[in-house]
Amino acid sequence: MKDLRPSTAQEYVKMVDQAIIEVEEMIACLEYETESASADRGHLDPLMAQLRTLRATMADGSYAFGNEDLPFMPLVWRMGNLLPIGQLLETINQTHRYGLNVDPQ
Questions:
Q1: What is the mean predicted confidence (pLDDT) over 1-16?
Q2: DSSP per residue over the chain, as a string?
Q3: Which residues are CB-neighbours of 29 under 8 A, at least 6 positions away?
Q4: Angle at Cα 73 formed by Cα 2 and Cα 9, nearest 5°?
Q5: What's the pTM value of the predicted model, to 2 decimals?
Q6: How far apart are CA 6 and CA 19, in angstroms?
């Protein structure tokens, strides 16, 4: 399995930014396509909040890589292939757990 983790902090931040954009687009699609979007957004709103919290810690300098899964991962695992950005979120989680993909010299 290919290691998709980013090699720089800037790439990692961009990856989180991309996930936020993707979730925003999914929410916008739900709002456009259904009248009961609030019921359908039950899993997307917490995901968005957790991604924004993650991004805020990156912006304010309080972010720290950890040895635990990010809070949104149970949702990712539950939804499986139904969540179009599952692979992106898995890569963000792997980066959080194991750090950047830097080749040792």
A1: 92
A2: ------SSHHHHHHHHHHHHHHHHHHHHHHHHH-TTHHHHTTTHHHHHHHHHHHHHHHHHT-----SS--TTHHHHHHHGGGSTTHHHHHHHHHHHHH-------
A3: none
A4: 55
A5: 0.87
A6: 14
